[in-house]
Amino acid sequence: MRTTFKRVATIGAAALLGAAVIAPTAQAADGDTSLASVLKVGQSKFDKDFTDFDILTRAAETVLAAKPDSNVKLLADGSVALTVFAPTDQAFINLASTLTGKKIKTEAAAFKAVAGLGVDTVEQVLLYHVVPGGPILSGDALKANGAKLKSADMNKTIKVKVTKKPNIILIDKAKKIANPRVNLDQVDINKGNKQVAHGINGVLLPFAP
Question: Among residues 114, 73, 110, which one has the least CA distance to residue 93?
Fold first, then answer.
């Protein structure tokens, strides 16, 4: 699957790109290492470490298996500048528990519940976590209280709220579910490249569940 993920990345990225409200870091990001390779898309295995991104990468694999031309493929093209807010496995477990009304205890069960939403919905949720035109490093985000970021589908926004602790909170469209927070020990993943990621403790939703 990893080979397929790289193969389907194509030059048609211009249609996806848009300027983020947060200005990118002044330091040049010249590297072309893709987030797909860093997050090990195509190598994900469900385990008991809920702090990494197995469910996220499995979701990306599932979307691309069904829809090879999905813009999710751009995560494998390191020449395309973007920022991903990446939900941890625990974030997906929490969402699955909310969706099912049952306490989900494993990554496999959480993925099954999320996948049950359908490929199109999973694709929409994944793209909501992608902000084109970055990279936005954690230092930028800490200065961006009140900023609004355009997500990859260009019709949805994510609002940034910074508190004094500091905490970086991302406000989505699901008002009845707690807003995700950036995990400050998981920021600037793949720094120095055009694609960066920040781990978050919840799943951003572009709609009310």
Answer: 110
Neighbours of 129 (CB within 10 A): 24
Return all residues near 19 (Cβ < 8 A) that are at least 6 apart.
133, 150
What is the pLDDT, as a whole number, of residue 107?
97
Structure tokens at 187: 């920021």
Domains of the chain: 2-11+30-200 (2.30.180.10)
Distances (CA, A) of 107 to 48, 66, 171, 195: 8, 21, 25, 26
- Asked if 157 and 146 touch (Cβ cutoff 8 Å), the reply is no
User: What confidence tier does 3 reach under pLDDT thresholds 50, 70, 90?
Assistant: very low
**In this predicted model, what pLDDT tens digit does every residue of 92-141 receive, in sequence order?**
999 999 999 999 999 999 999 999 999 999 999 999 999 998 789 998 88
The candidate with the shortest Cα–Cα distance to 145, out of 172, 164, 128, 131, is: 164
